[in-house]
Amino acid sequence: MDITLQQVSYAYAKDTPFEKKALFDVDLNIPSGSYQAIIGHTGSGKSTVLQHLNALLKPTEGTVRIGEIEVQGKKKNKQLRAVRQKVGIVFQFPEHQLFDETVLKDIMFGPMNYGVPEAEAKARAVELVKLLGLPEEVMEKSPFDLSGGQMRRVAIAGVLAMNPEVLVLDEPTAGLDPRGRKEIMDLFYRIHQEKGITTILVTHSMEDAARYADRIAIMYRGKCVLQGTPEEVFENETRLKDYQLELPQTVKFQRKLEQMMGRRLPILCLTEEVLAIEMAHLLKKGCEDEC
Ligand SMILES: Nc1ncnc2c1ncn2[C@@H]1O[C@H](COP(=O)(O)OP(=O)(O)OP(=O)(O)O)[C@@H](O)[C@H]1O
After folding, report:
1. Is the CB of 47 within 6 Å of ligand 1?
2. 85-to-110, 160, 177, 210 alpha-carbon distances in Å
3. What is the pLDDT of residues 232-242, one digit of tens each?
4. CDD domains of this UniProt entry (predicted)?
5. How many domains does one find in the chain?
6. Within this chain, do residues 256 and 225 fall inside the same structural domain, yes or no?
7. Are residues 211 and 255 in the same domain?
């Protein structure tokens, strides 16, 4: 399911003395099956874009197309319930939205609310508990008796239980330790690949955008100012600086190394693994030249 924003502008509290324009003519096309990162300095409009992706906000001007469904500001749309089922959002600190008395009931709540039979909702919950690496015995526990990391996984399972076609992740690892962060991000990537779910990641982490996304869009002062592959975006250090963004750590290291060597490496090293391989090549070549 493609999602397209066409000339989307949005103003909070429109036509009141508190009106605040947050988006200006945003064009963004997110093809079905892609992994799209949306990055930008704080206040640049990322969360406002995100809330248009499942029609929590409707554009003041312009159109959002979510699959076949068109969302425009003034038009009433009876299909919004279907949109919310197809596009799942994992908000920051999703565990704050847990409420049911057991983990199992919490995960089953969304699908049952949408008419999924109890047996199927339960089967989905059991499968997801396993997929998210939670021990089976948590199922009958209160979600509030779990660790922070486990609560986060239960909340994510609740979103996945709706079988969304598109998964929107708003800083999904905020507050987790580095190991927990990597585990969750790797898990989302696996789900994206195995189930073909279109994934949209809103993040401040250049490293996560570089590692996982196949497309990146940069927001700056309410505008979508640059779009491209991670290579295209992170080649462009000067423009990133203009938008108050940094290079990923591996690319920063690569640029310093290149300065010292007086030449460029053939590829951009977007992850530690690729950087390690390139350095090993250089070291091996250095040894061979000396021999
Ligand atoms: N509910 C609101 N009412 C009025 N203005 C708002 C509201 N939410 C956001 N804004 C304003 O809209 C602009 C864009 O905010 P938004 O939250 O989309 O940015 P962001 O890139 O997600 O920021 P952050 O990285 O800090 O979460 C900002 O100027 C912000 O102050």
Report:
1. yes
2. 9, 10, 30, 29
3. 999 989 999 99
4. ABC_cobalt_CbiO_domain1
5. 2
6. no
7. no
